[in-house]
Structure formats: structure tokens, C-alpha cells
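From the shared-data thread, chain only:
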Amino acid sequence: MTEATSPLSDQVPDPEVYRRRRSYTDLYARSLVGPMYYIVACLMLLFIGGLGSVALAVTICAAVMFLALWRLRYTNRLPVDFTDEQVCARWSRRQWGSIHAGYILWGLVTVVVTLDQGELNNAVFTASLAISMFGNAASTVFTVNSTQQRITLAALHWPIILVLAIFPQFRVLALVLFLHWIWCGLSATRLASEYRVQVELEYALLVSRAEVQALARTDALTGLANRHEYVSRLNWAWLSAQRNKSPLVMAVIDLDHFKVVNDVHGHLAGDVCLKHVAGLLKHHFRRADDFVARIGGEEFVAILPSTTIEVGLRMCEEFRLALAASVINFEDKSIKMTTSIGVGIVTPSAEIKPDASFARIDAATYEAKSRGRNQTVIAANIKA
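Structure, as C-alpha cells:
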């Protein structure tokens, strides 16, 4: 992992996955409240009284069914993996099915009570008023899916509208509920649009925040991690190696005669050389846990978790030889570069600090320079 990423940082999810998780989480939380209001409405009808035996039985049974719907919604737990479209689709169908069932059930209760009463009295008015309240709730709460929201509003309103329209004494109420259905639809469209905009803004903010964090961790010229991210990653790798009792290799890489490149060819040429070196580092230290950072002008460091000194030495030598064999073209000039590398095994413990290990391996880098440059020295042979 040569890019400037932290193992502890939050990763920005795929936009579709983020929208799915956000909407499903909202739907689950919002759908748990509705059945309780249904039960309260049933109790109000029973309290008003005057219901015939059929309407009374239907109202009591409906209260029990609303309680069962609440349990069904509650036990339909959110998916663990929101990237699995099939699992998420099954969850959505179950949750929306229970929501539609609740609205259809209340619409049928209202139909039965209306037919039982045969006139516009307190029971019919209460049942119709509940439809109005539940419709308002649907247009406000279920904005996470505008299509399902419209199905819910239709399931709630149209059974009672069609029944009321049959009887002359109820046609005014049918017209009122019809107008209310239109109003709920318009409100639902506006609120669903606002919800989508809100989610998109949240995701854009998440991406923007991640980009800012990435810039704070990244060396602008090379695209590698910067010194600040190196310190964070070293501490993390140190603790992980100490906890897992796994080997940890560190390499300090210093370019040879880089000041001469800047003095002879100019700083723009030096920048081209640094980018070339960074590209080779990314290529040669590309395993999942490998980490490379630029910690100074021409100084780089590689952290290689779960790596033996033999493997670490081989990787450093392959990079060194590849750099020495490559040619860097700048304008009409061809520039050759070499590097001196110090590499060593790190044994994290309470007595040894990360800085001490770096100093020991950095000393090996200077030993490589004193021996003539363009070579790799194992820090085990150097005293820190």
C-alpha cells in the first residue's frame, strides 16, 4: 500500500452503497413508529363505541395485526453488508411490504367502520381523520423512496374513497379525502426531492472531507505519503507488530548526489527525478501492507510489516538496481540516479521506541554512502 492512506481512516463508500445504507437506515427507524399510532387509532374507535359486532371484531383483530406488523418490522434487521444488492433488495421488499400492509389494513378498517355506521358520525369521522394523519405522516416520513411512498398513499386513500363515493351521504367526505390524497402526493414529491438533495450533499461533504484528509497525508509532488502520515503509520505498524509478535522491516532510502542534480539541471529536473523515484517505489513496494513515504527532500522511508530481513533486503535491492538502470529524461537531457539504502529488522518492545529504530536504520543509510553509495546496508551491522 504505497498510497497515502491510513489504516485508521474512514474510507469513502461507493455513492450507491452510501445512498442505500442511508435510506435503509432511515426507513428502518421511521417505520417502527407507525404501528403504535395504528393501535392508538383502534383504541380510539373502541372508546367511542357504537360499533357493530363485525366492525368491533375487525377493529380488535386489526389492533393485534398492527402489533404483529410492528414486530415484523422490528425483527427485519438492517443488512450487514450494504454492498450485497440481492440481500438489500430482499430486506427492502420485506420492510416496504409490512409498511404497505399497515396502510391497506387501516384503509379496510375505515371501510368496515363506515359501512357499519352508515352515517357520518364520530366513529366514521375519527377513522377518516386518522387516514388524513397517516397520509401526512407517509408524505413526510417515507421520503426515502418516492415510488413506494406513492404506493403507500394510494393504498391508504383509495379503498375508502371508492367506498364513500358510492353513498350520497359520504360523497363530500370522499371528495375531501381525494383532495387530501392529491395534496399528500404533491407534498411527498417535494419532500422526497429534498431528501435526495440532502443525501447527495452529505455524500459530497463526505468526499470533500476525505479529499482534505488525503491531501493532509500526501506529499503533493510525488503522491506518496508525507512525513506526518509516516509517523502515524509507523506507530500503527509498531503496535500491530508488537501485538501480533510479527516481524517488521524498515528501510531508509536516500538519493545520491541529488543536490548536484538540482544545481546542474535545475529544480524542475529535480522534481521530475523525484516523481520518477516515487513511481519506482510504488512499483517495487506494492504489497497490500507495504507503505512508502517521502519524509524529506530526497529521503524516503519504507515500512514493510510481516516481512523478514531477507525479503526486505531483496525488495530494496530490486528497487536500487531498477533505479540505477533507468534513465530519466528531462527536456533534452538524460539523467541517471542512484540511491543509498539502509534496511533493518525492527523488534517493537516497551524498551525500544520507534525513533530509536529509525535512527539505527538511518545510520545504515549513511554507512552505505560512506562505502561509496549506490548500495544497501543491513542495519543489524550498525550500532544506533
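The CA atoms of residues 135 and 184 lie 6 Å apart.
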